[in-house]
């Protein structure tokens, strides 16, 4: 989604960082990918995660602030 050029070294470092993040928290890695590479807004990411969560578990648990729980 970004138009700036990135060096091969930076691209590899980014890939490695995302891979490590995915091992710790796959959901957060997905957020980074959707925001950085997909250009999605925060509300679009939230909608995508809620849709996936609802389909995966058949129901959605919400906090009192309206944020979906994992």
Q: What does this 3D model show about the protein?
A:
It is built from three helices and no strands. The protein is flat, with a radius of gyration of 14 Å. Helix 1 (8-24) runs antiparallel to helix 2. Helices cover 64% and strands 0% of the residues. Mean pLDDT is 77; it is low at 54-70. The chain has 70 residues and is an all-alpha fold.
Name some characteristics of this structure:
70 residues; single chain; mainly alpha; disordered C terminus
Summarize it.
The protein is built from three helices and no strands. The chain is mainly alpha-helical and 70 residues long.
Sheet-strand content, in percent, reads: under 5%
* Helix proportion range: 55-70%
The N- and C-terminal alpha carbons lie at a distance of 27 Å
Structural class: mainly alpha
Summarize the helices and strands and which ones pair or pack.
Blueprint: H1 8-24, H2 26-37, H3 42-57
Helix pairs in contact: 1-2
């Amino acid at each position: 989604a970004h138009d700036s050029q990135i060096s091969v070294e930076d691209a590899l470092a980014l890939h490695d960082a995302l891979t490590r993040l995915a091992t710790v928290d796959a959901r957060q890695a997905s957020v980074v990918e959707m925001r950085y590479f997909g250009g999605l807004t925060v509300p679009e990411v939230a909608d995508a995660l809620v849709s996936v969560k609802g389909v995966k578990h058949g129901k959605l648990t919400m906090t009192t602030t309206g944020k979906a729980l994992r």
